[in-house]
Amino acid sequence: MDRVDLLEILAPGILATVQDSGRQGYRQIGVAPSGAADSYACRIGNLLVGNLDSAAVVEITLMGFQARFKREAVVAVTGADLGACLNGAPTTMWTAFRAAPGDILAVTAPVLGCRAYLAVGGGIGVPTVMGSRATNTGAGFGGLDGRALVAGDVLPGTRPQAHLHCVGRSIPAALRPTYTSAWILRVIPGPQADQFTPAGRALFFEAVYTASQKSDRTGVRLDGPALETQPGAPGSILSEGIMAGAIQVPGDGRPIILLNETVTGGYRKIAVVVSADLPLLGQVAPGDTVQFQETEIPTAVRRLRQVEAAVDWVRACWTD
Amino acid sequence: MPPVIRHLGDSGLLVELGTGIDPAVNQRVQQLQQRLQRENIDGLVETVPAYCSLLVVYDPLKAAPEALKRRITGLCRFEAAVQSDEQAVRDIPVVYGGEDGPDLTSVADYHGLSVEEVVRLHSGRVYRVYMIGFTPGYPYMGKLPEALNTPRRETPRTHIPKGSVAIAQRQTGIYPVVSPGGWQIIGRTPVSLFDTRRDTPSLLAMGDRVRFLPVRPEEAAKWTG
Prior knowledge:
- The complex is a heterodimer.
- By secondary structure, chain A is of the alpha+beta class.
- Chain A folds into 2 domains: 3-177, no CATH class; 182-308, Cyclophilin (Beta Barrel).
- Chain A contains 4 helices and 20 strands.
- Chain A has helices at 39-48, 198-206, 278-281, 297-317; strands spanning 3-12, 16-19, 57-61, 65-69, 73-81, 84-86, 89-90, 96-99, 104-107, 112-120, 154-158, 182-189, 209-211, 219-223, 240-241, 246-249, 256-258, 264-265, 268-273, 289-294.
- In chain A, strand 16 and strand 17 (256-258) form a beta hairpin.
- In chain A, helix 1 (39-48) packs parallel to helix 4 (297-317).
- Chain A starts with a strand and ends with a helix.
- Chain B is 21% helix and 29% strand.
- In chain B, strands 5-12-9-10-7-6-13 form a 7-stranded mixed barrel. In chain B, strands 1-2-4-3 form a 4-stranded antiparallel beta sheet, with helices on one face. In chain B, strands 8-11 form a two-stranded antiparallel ribbon.
- In chain B, a hairpin with a 3-residue loop joins strand 3 (44-49) and strand 4 (53-58).
- Chain B is elongated, with a radius of gyration of 19 Å.
- The A-B interface holds A 24-31, 129-130, 136, 138-141, 187-191, 238-243, 245-246, 263-264, 269, 272-275, 297, 300-301, 304-305, 308 and B 6-12, 14, 19-21, 33, 45-55, 57, 60-61, 65, 131-138, 140, 176-179, 194, 196, 201-202, 205-206.
């Protein structure tokens, strides 16, 4: 597979992992999809450097990440603006540029959003496990040795030289998501919404929640008003299948929005974030505010169609 | 009785086929999953069986939820519960107590039983695997004898060793990978429940039948592999 030493991690920062579009089809044996928390940024980054949109990238969290290129490669940084610099000079986000051997890519200061994606031409060449290169840190497989990256790790690449013609590719501003620190996420009422009191349900849509410092790749934990359940509603429900975007409300009444690391859950779900907004959910940083807006399934599907149309448009730009 | 089908966002349908931890309900969940897999429905991504529900994950750009609901409802005609007693029983060796089962003594004390009685009760029946969830390969099994009905620990542990055999209420389970957890740990198995190098990574699947086999610590090594 022409595997080469590509990228040496000098500092992982808060959390850096290898991710891709995730692992499908294994939920029934307890294996969550994992994958890039902001799938849109990951996919676009890949297309900018001439990869399939499902290729593996490095997901960088907030601050402190630094890595050195060991090969010439084409690179794109997408997702959160974390102040990415190449050899100290700011890079242009959502644009493919060239990195030479010895060049150092670092994030210097989080501006907006939570996670940036480092896509490299040829992709990160770690082995696939159960059909994906995504790191499942909970169970310890996928990615690089099933764990978060540490200083001294060297990530393999696959024929990076074959992608150098992609330097200079960029996408129009209209296709770059607008990040914020005051998020409004669209939701569909959840399967146990009726177990909350009308006041509890109303409060959920009126409240301005704050993403807690305890948020991570498993979920965004929210600080804010506790939601009241119907008298007599049980403290928990029997475990059932769950998906990214599901908003669980445990006994303390404070919602947790799940990302893609959980397959089953035993807490009631008041609402579920629509698929089109999941990439934005992956960008909610601790301290950001979150509000919820109710929508309907046909509207949600229309929004998802727009997202997919944008990805298709970008892909078509460079299909020979 | 038609199923209750609820939306889990714009790409999931939760099909409820009954309530509680009930082998007859769980068999219906298993049957519906098998039927859906055979149907080869365009846009169906995967299904997640649980105690009394099946989550159907679909691609909303390929499958319309209302049509999918009708299709699922049409597959929910079940005959009387099929007996699955003829299915082979898998023996899982367990070293009970000591460092491997730090909660065995307190579970015995809680019920006013001897440690030996707890082991005899836990290993004395065949359990059904109701679902796999929580972590890769984690089997939720039941029902535990009422005499062992024990609440979860008040403070969950942050680091439970791989292979730990645990109980909570009328359920028993095995932690396949190191993880946090709140169940009472009564023993440990040397058998690997989850291994990505195997063709079938999860040792157990929903519907399997399992019996625990008490072994001495020095016997455990021969089961590893």
